């Protein structure tokens, strides 16, 4: 569930003003504030109780999550450093790569594919 925007709040206030009238609106707003405060306090109390009762059981899960987050952070760092590195072939490697490309172009083979060998043609 998303948060309310300014337009949505304005519509709610206008509907409340029409339904309850200007005399009762401050009283109803005060009651709604009290209910909200009670609901927040009950939620906090339940959360504290659950943490106190089951805190020891959730500790291994929290540790695993922390390890997972650290690993994912490392992987993102490695991935970004790999994408930032430009690969430079030595001169001999460039010449060999150019020869293979020229041979595949001459044979009508798309880039990245080697022409079939005589053994492959026979099968």
Note down, in words, how this protein is organized.
By secondary structure, the chain is mainly α. The protein is 82% helix and 0% strand. It contains three helices and no strands. The longest helix is centred in the middle third of the chain and has 79 residues, at 6-84. It is flat. The protein starts with 5 loop residues before the first helix and ends with a helix. The mean pLDDT is 78.
Features:
123 residues, mainly alpha, 82% helix, 0% strand, flat
Number of strands: 0
Strand content: under 5%
Which oligomeric form is depicted? single chain
Main sheet record: none
Poorly predicted regions are: none
Based on CA atoms alone, the radius of gyration comes out at: 34 Å
Label the structural class.
mainly alpha
Tally of alpha and pi helices: 3
User: What is the H/E order?
Assistant: HHH
CA(first)-CA(last) distance = 61 Å
Mean pLDDT: 78
Overall geometry comes to: flat
**Helicity, in percent?**
over 70%
Give a brief description.
The protein is mainly α. The protein contains three helices and no strands.
Chain-wise SSE layout:
Elements: H1 6-84, H2 91-107, H3 118-122
